[in-house]
């Protein structure tokens, strides 16, 4: 069933404008394709949300490390550097997951 071009939104079987016959779609195949597409989309969303959550936990742990190092008098520079690196990794992971910046595997070349 293809639109007949009359503008009334109805579909009619028969030849289409290009001279070919209207293609019939098997409902079972269409259901399977749509079901798989929706399943993939839902899994993609769940994966993205979880990965962004992990990224923010990493950044939060880094922030706690910076705050703890700044509060103590004997804190070494290495502790602050590790904490800042954790913050950077967490923010990068979140941004790459949300496709705001390219992932590392795309840095090398075309």
Keywords:
mainly alpha; transmembrane; two-stranded antiparallel sheet; 110 residues; membrane; transmembrane helix; single chain
Walk me through this protein's architecture.
This protein is mainly alpha-helical and 110 residues long. It has a domain of 50 residues. Helices cover 60% and strands 4% of the residues. It has a two-stranded antiparallel ribbon. It starts with a strand and ends in a 13-residue tail after the last helix. 5% of the residues are buried.
Structural class by SSE content: mainly alpha
The residue fraction in helices comes out at 55-70%
Task: Give the overall shape.
Answer: elongated
Provide the β-strand percentage band. under 5%
Distance between the termini: 43 Å
Transmembrane segments: 41-63, 75-95
Keywords: Membrane, Transmembrane, Transmembrane helix
Question: What would you say about this model in short?
Answer:
This protein has 110 residues and is mainly alpha-helical. 60% of the residues lie in helices and 4% in strands. The chain has two helices and two strands; from the N terminus they run ββαα.
């Amino acid at each position: 069933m293809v639109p007949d071009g009359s503008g009334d939104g109805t579909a009619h079987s028969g030849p289409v404008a290009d001279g070919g016959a209207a293609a019939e779609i098997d409902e079972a195949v269409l259901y399977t394709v749509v079901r798989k597409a929706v399943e993939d989309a839902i899994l993609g969303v769940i994966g993205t949300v979880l990965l962004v959550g992990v990224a923010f936990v990493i950044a939060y742990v880094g922030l706690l490390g910076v705050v703890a190092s700044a509060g103590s008098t004997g804190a070494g520079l290495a502790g602050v550097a590790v904490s800042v690196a954790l913050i950077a990794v967490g923010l990068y992971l979140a941004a790459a997951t949300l496709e705001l910046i390219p992932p590392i595997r795309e840095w090398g070349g075309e």
